[in-house]
């Protein structure tokens, strides 16, 4: 319990530091969204309207400590401010629209890649010298050496533009009405096949090789020799003893990958014009939308911290040695 509380305190401190940096950095930059909007309309906004805009965006002439506590108060109520590019839409609303698409695409792709790659690594280590170990692992490592956006463009050209099997862009067809219908879900799935496959193919080899190398080291330990000496079934030895002990590094990496899911697969979303958070981040940077950038960075940071805390709890459950030192 003390271990959990220590880790929780560490992550709460890191979250507070992230919130503070998220507040300070935009205010150190020259200008603000309201002034940029004022310049965009070439002075057609009255000075009174400019003051109102600055207040709406959280850039006032009040002392920094007053602005800081106002900023924290708004965060606690879920108010991330107004988006400049999508004005007057709230940042939370804009992020929410992209978050669902990113979780559906990148989240599912990461989970599939981790599960399949880890299992392939277990089988490759258990059957060393077989085709999984000698042929599939190098092939996946070779594919993983290519940038994932290049694989995305290749898949788009071959299966979208060349063969016409899959759509070229967006998350669903414009002539399909969004809703909880089989037609809409099937169309969304069809649009997600190419971007999700490119992410899975690019990352599968890393999970497989990581699990394979860790498990090979575990197979030479006394614990495995004792399990074999007891006459336990090979399947039980492979999964319960070898795979479970070798799983911890992959679980840690999975937590990091899952946390960064919310940042979206940036370049893949750009290639396919997929409306996820990565695509939103590019638009926010391009339009100098500071509130939206702040909101996205904050969501990504908190997601990474939450994922790492969940991994710490999972490792505490998987590894008895951690519980003994906790």
Automatic annotation (TrEMBL):
Residues 99-311 form the ABC transmembrane type-1 domain. The keyword Ion transport does not apply. GO terms for biological process: transmembrane transport. The keyword Translocase does not apply. It is a multi-pass membrane protein. Signal peptide: none annotated. It holds the Pfam family BPD_transp_1. InterPro entries: MetI-like, MetI-like_sf. One of its GO terms (cellular component) is plasma membrane. Belongs to the binding-protein-dependent transport system permease family. This is ABC transporter permease.
